[in-house]
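dude i think i finally got it to work??
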Amino acid sequence: MVTAADIDAVLPQTQCTRCGYAGCMPYAEAIAANEAPINRCPPGGESVLHQLSRLTQQPITPIDPHCGTIGGPKVAVIDADRCIGCAKCLPACPVDAILGARKSLHRVINTECSGCELCLSPCPVDCIEMRVINSEPLPAEQLAADADRYRIRYQAHRARAKARQEAKLSRFNRLTVTKGDPS
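look at this
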């Protein structure tokens, strides 16, 4: 029996959500439970589609056009003249490839950007665009190497987000206790 971990291991780890799931692992879990087809990962392209077909024994069907199209890798580019430093793109980036702080110009670490496009939507001034690096899809070996790197960065992103949330909750709890304490 193929597990979600087996399926997740071949996904590109862009965490783009184009498949309709909250990331690569939730999509892998849905495939493993026979709740999702294998053709919903445009970033993985034909290479990942063939690997998923071999793993799951499902037939290959074209990538679902509602999920996007197969293409070469992209990278986010921030227009310095339009960036207002709102920092809304920072938490949206699942691999922490955007550097910046509030009221400061942001920039993208090109070599770490997974091309997920999740930074586009929260930007209130549309200063981020996706640029194609190469019009050809990446070879399977490069996809796998990138996936390993993105997986590590995504796990670190989630750990930092969890730590920030716990710190915020701790501050809130201290304030609540202080305000509620009559002594």
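The chain has two domains: 4-67, 71-141+153-170.
im so relieved honestly
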